[in-house]
Amino acid sequence: MYAYGPVPSRRLGRSVGVSPIPEKTCSYSCVYCQLGRTKTLTTKRHSFFPKEAVFADIEKVVRANEGKIDYITFVGDGEPTLSLDLGALIHECKQNFPYKVAVITNGSLLWMEDVRQDLREADVVNITMATSDPDTFKGMHRPHGSLRFEQVWQGIQQFAAEFKGQIWAEIMLVDMVNTDTEAMKSLKTLIDSVHPERTYVMAPTRPPAEPWVHMPRPETILEALALFGGENVTQLEEGSFGLDEFHSAVEAISEICRRHPLRIAQARTIEAYFAQRTLDRLIASGKFKIISYQNRKYVLPSEFVFGKQEQS
Ligand code: SF4
């Protein structure tokens, strides 16, 4: 399944997610990643799946949810610009549907001409901009060995100069990593150079890849909001998941929690929708685990859980 949802998104409303890449394939392995540690760390672009099959899946989900969609969002179970089919898929979506298309990218490959070309028909490109410091960049994103901080930022700036749609800056704040006042001021200067239409201040509200990653303190978030002038996306999203394309609670819970951290309460709502009790069996099978983060319980695939605190 390449397309899913609509899922409630804090920035994009009801968003049909599209993942044109294999699970956890990324050019970064961010310490805060909600998908766990990256399995395939790469900067090599591939046509991972037949693009006709990916588009057929998008079409199926979109047609089943006409009128209930705000965005079709290429987000990937990793970095979507690694897909060589991204440009063709965005083009097909723009030709066939009336919905806006967004791409959520870490921005690491924008120095590549073909990546910039692939994104040109998107309405929105949301780019990670978390630090202006090369060492913090390395420690926070753990990029592929071939990527250099300066190269990544030059790529972002070049894309910003060429792109006709909206650029949104995503600032992920990790406590004690990039939350120093001077570091945030310096990042602000860098972000200003690409003139984003919107700036989102984010925090690891969902279980991160590494257990030492924490939300910044509320006063730090307020300081960041005042400095960046951005919107606060440090709260949990509300709303329900589109479940029409799933046939059972087990299928829905398994698919959704691979792409979108699922709170236990949300999993119970899915069980109620299908009138099936399945979560306890999934946990007992060992394929899924419950972990606690920020005083909430989440269900995650076992392979996403590394050093995270596991609950029985
Ligand atoms: S947060 Fe995004 S860029 Fe970072 S490792 Fe996860 S998928 Fe890749």
Automatic annotation (TrEMBL):
Ribosomal protein found in the keyword field: no
Keyword Cell membrane part of the UniProt annotation: no
Domain Radical SAM core: 10-244
Highest rank taxon of the organism: Bacteria
Pfam families recorded: Radical_SAM
GO molecular function: 4 iron, 4 sulfur cluster binding; catalytic activity; metal ion binding
Names of the cofactor(s): [4Fe-4S] cluster
Keywords, alphabetical: 4Fe-4S, Iron, Iron-sulfur, Metal-binding, S-adenosyl-L-methionine
Protein name (Swiss-Prot/TrEMBL): Fe-S oxidoreductase
Native organism: uncultured spirochete
